[in-house]
Every structure is written in C-alpha cells, then in structure tokens.
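Design job #97: recover the sequence.
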C-alpha cells in the first residue's frame, strides 16, 4: 500500500510538471495584490511575523482563520501606476471580505477584482470569489479547506478559473528565543487554472499559460524574536513551488508598537521571473494602526453585543516590475473584543 501511495504521488507530480507554465509578471501573486496586508504580508502560511488574520488570509492558507473568535469585515483597494506606459498608465484592484466564526468552525468569503493591463504587468481584467472553512483540532492545530472561482477577460477573450485549497497550521509555542513559533503548509490551485490566454507571459513575451501555478505547495514558519509589553518584533519565511516548475521565496519582518501600530516589510524572490528578466526585488513597506471604538446604546452593533469593537486601517507601497508602483489601502472591522478570560468551571451544587 505504501509503495502504491508513493507511486501515485510521483505520478501526480510528474503530470503537473508536464504542463507548460508561463505566467504573466505578477500572475503568481494575482490574489495578493488587492490589499495592503496582501502586498506587505510576505504571503505567510504561518500567519505573519506577528500573528494576524484577515478574511483574505485563507488565500494563502485556509487553516489560518480557525482560531478567530470575532466576526470581521474588510475592504481594500490598490492603485497600479506604470510611469513608462502612456497607453495603460493606470490599473487597479479591490476586495471585500467577511469572516464568520461559528460553533462548528470559521467560515470566510472574499470577492476580488483586478484590472492591470500595462506592458510591465499584463494581468487583464479578473474577478475572483473565494469561500473557505477552517476548524481547530486542538488549541494549537487547525486544518482548512477552500474553493475559488475566477473569470479573466482580455481583448474579448474569456477564461474561467475553478480550484480547491487545503491548509494546515500548528502553533508550537515558545522555543528557546523564538516566541509564538508557528508553522503552516498549504496546497492551492487544485483544479482548473487560467489556460492559454492572450496576455504577455514572462517567457520571451509568449502567451501566458496555466497560471496561477497549478497545485502550488507552500510551507513556512513565523515567530517573534522580541515580545515585550509595548514592543514586538517578528519574522516569517516561506517557500512555494508553483506547478513544481518554479521556486518562490518570501520573507517578512514586522514590528508592533504599543499593541497598535504595526510596521511591515516583505521581500520576494521568484526564480522564474528573475530568470526571465521580470524582476520584482524591491521590498514592500506597510503601515497599519489598530484602535478600539464604542458604539452608542441602541445601535445595531450594541444590540448584537458588539458595543466595543476594533478597527484597523492599513496602507502599503511597493515598486513592482520595472516602472509599476502599487499603492494600497484598506480597513478591517473586528466586531467585539477578544475573550481573554479563561473559562469558569463550576462543580455540582455551586452557585
């Protein structure tokens, strides 16, 4: 039986690797371009250097949302400016997300749109809908599953995208100087990706083929190096293998000040893009601020038990692909406050 399983896995890898793979510049990161936390979050499958979750976290690893206690709503947008392309100097992206904890697990939904038609980053017009479900198995381990549907339109040509995602997350706690050490792994794009298109691929300008990478395996780790009352420094490192024909490395560094102000930076090395002169080696820079607010008595939020909630506003910038700058901003609303009290256990007869 073991030999049969190994042989089946080898055949799967071989069949996936047999596909031609020629994404456009930015195509492998298509679903990370719509928000500041996507641009500056280093694509961490372990939740980032300083652990945080948004409705779009399931795009990287569907298991990340399992420990969320509060409903969340997010909205974000990105502006792309290509200062070397007078015909298509502007592009854009936007997303809206929803995260819903239940007694059975955590569900999340995300809608995205990406419009980028410049010569330096030719992604066409995309619409993407994602639904995910995650469940904690213990207080340290979780699993997740998700499904994606997308539609690409360019020069009158339409293509569909439909795939599934699987994820795993494990919080190992403190290990020596590493605090809150976490590992994660995910396999995404299990299904139909965008096939042959009229977009420009990174390989000598040929047509873009089979992207984002079919059966992309990603794994990574994250931890805090310094964890003090008003200062936290964390890092993350991930590696991904799109279609088993490419290697993509992501690293990130995050600083949290006074449990409110977060400074983020991330850097990516995509071997296939670098080889084909579609370099994207500039690090991103992100900034976010979290604050609590109170809702008036009798308001919709107060009536539903969310009189006290938290809001996070974020922004990010990155220079991408020769002359393309990405400017992004967004907001996340977490309804209610985290439950930090341990459960109270009462014995029979106690009041």
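Job complete. Output follows.
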């Amino acid at each position: 039986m073991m030999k049969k399983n190994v042989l089946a896995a080898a055949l799967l890898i071989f069949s996936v690797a047999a596909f031609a793979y020629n994404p456009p510049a930015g195509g492998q990161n298509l679903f990370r371009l719509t928000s500041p936390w996507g641009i500056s979050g280093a694509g961490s499958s372990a939740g980032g250097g300083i652990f945080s979750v948004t409705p779009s976290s399931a795009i990287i690893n569907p298991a990340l949302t399992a420990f969320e206690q509060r409903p969340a709503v997010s909205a974000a947008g990105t502006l792309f400016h290509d200062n070397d392309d007078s015909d298509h100097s502007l592009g854009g992206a936007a997303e809206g997300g929803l995260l819903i904890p239940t007694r059975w697990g955590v569900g999340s939904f995300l809608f995205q749109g990406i419009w980028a038609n410049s010569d330096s980053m030719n992604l066409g017009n995309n619409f993407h809908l994602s639904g995910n479900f995650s469940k904690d198995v213990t207080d340290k381990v979780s699993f997740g599953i998700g499904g994606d549907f997308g539609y690409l339109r360019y020069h009158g040509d339409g293509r569909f995208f439909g795939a599934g995602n699987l994820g795993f997350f494990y919080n190992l706690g403190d290990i020596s100087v590493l605090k809150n050490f976490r590992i994660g792994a995910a396999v995404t794009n299990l299904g139909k990706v965008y096939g042959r298109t009229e977009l420009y691929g990174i390989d000598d300008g040929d047509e873009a083929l089979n992207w984002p990478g079919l059966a992309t395996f990603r794994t990574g780790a994250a931890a805090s190096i310094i964890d003090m009352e008003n200062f936290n420094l964390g890092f993350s490192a991930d590696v991904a293998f799109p279609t088993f024909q490419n290697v993509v490395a992501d690293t990130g560094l995050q600083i949290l000040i006074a449990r409110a102000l977060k400074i983020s930076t991330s850097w990516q090395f995509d071997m296939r893009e670098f080889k084909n002169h579609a370099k994207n080696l500039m690090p991103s820079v992100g900034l976010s601020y979290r604050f609590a607010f109170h809702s008036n008595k009798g308001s919709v939020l107060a009536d539903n038990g969310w009189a006290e909630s938290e809001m996070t506003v974020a922004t990010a910038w990155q220079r991408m692909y020769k002359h393309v700058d990405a400017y992004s901003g967004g907001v996340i609303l977490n309804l209610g406050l985290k439950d930090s009290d341990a459960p109270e256990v009462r014995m029979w007869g106690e009041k």
